[in-house]
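Slide 14.
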Amino acid sequence: MEAARRAPHRPVQLTYEYSLFAPADATAPKVCRDFVRGVLLTLDRAPLVPPATLCTSELVTNVHLHTKGTAMLRLQLTPARLRVSVFDESPDPPVTPATAGVTACWGRGLALVAEVAEAWGVARDRAGRYAKGVWFELGDATADGPIHPHRIG
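Slide 15: predicted structure.
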């Protein structure tokens, strides 16, 4: 019955990609967290919400604190993985956990991302006007097939 309701020209979508532009100001971390939370809840991926929102908040906060201009958040979701990238206009590398130090007042956000995420890194490829992107990935152990968004109606 489900296949009969689906339009023949619309295959099951396995990869979702969303982007959001946010100013480098104090509202950006919350807006980006809420965006990531909304996408994940809409696509029935609630177990990813706590780690994804924490890591997103850390990366966007770094843009707010250490760069000027806007941030571009890119979310890519497959049945088994989530990748969130935050691009900014600064070519300066982020302060990494190895250089921050345990007692540092600044620079521990990426250490937190490294602890929570399965993988993270810095993409130095330019994305339009953005000089670099910092990304993290999370796997979803509960994923057992295609993503099925909530249906309305």
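Speaker note: The longest helix spans residues 49-66.
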